[in-house]
């Protein structure tokens, strides 16, 4: 077999990842006919069929899927190497890119990145994204680390996620300062209205279990998915809320809000998500270790 043409393999990789040959050609800035010719040359040199046509679509053959797995490894490693050479030259300092789940507590994010603000040798970019965009950013090496409030499960063999718990924050009943009920839960809370996190969140599930244990039916005024908005409503509405105390630490210190009582066994967890890399970014490893030490998280 002739020596593998990596230029042709790169074109195959781009076509296999794209919804259509047209989009792949546009992204590569070549004509469809030229791109098709490159793929046919690769198939000829390998003596295999990589695609079959089904209607207007090109579908990978079994061999094509295996070749794609190798191509993923080859070109992902190449992109990782390029990023490593750009970011990790000690003489130039380091620059790392962080993504955070869009509904995370801003107070927690600030505490997490505090070591970077104090470092003279590391600069960083920080972007807020949805989960899908975060994971795509990690896979495409746009992000060095993603910060989320739940671990990510690997749904395919092509991608494996490294989930590291970096903090667990206790969840409490938060209300206006100086208005804590004289009676404990649930007796003192019969006429209260609540602003709570959205359904299908760990905090909401813990709160519902807590209420069920005490045979208490909360009068829910609003459900809010975004932690920043939940913080504002907890501060300004006069209603009770359920959230980690770190989210409203400034309001508690300024005596706008008060921690009425903790909800047993209720926590919000924060995870640092990365992908396996041959060239580990030391600043990212240090950031994770510092957070784990700060919040006393054990490996």
UniProtKB/TrEMBL annotation:
Domain of life assignment: Bacteria
Domain HTH lysR-type intervals: 4-61
Pfam families referenced in this protein's UniProt entry, alphabetically: HTH_1 (PF00126), LysR_substrate (PF03466)
InterPro entries linked to this entry: LysR_HTH_N (IPR000847), LysR_subst-bd (IPR005119), WH-like_DNA-bd_sf (IPR036388), WH_DNA-bd_sf (IPR036390)
Keywords recorded for this protein, A-Z: DNA-binding, Transcription, Transcription regulation
Family membership noted in the UniProt record: Belongs to the LysR transcriptional regulatory family.
Descriptive protein name: LysR family transcriptional regulator
Organism of derivation: Marinomonas vulgaris
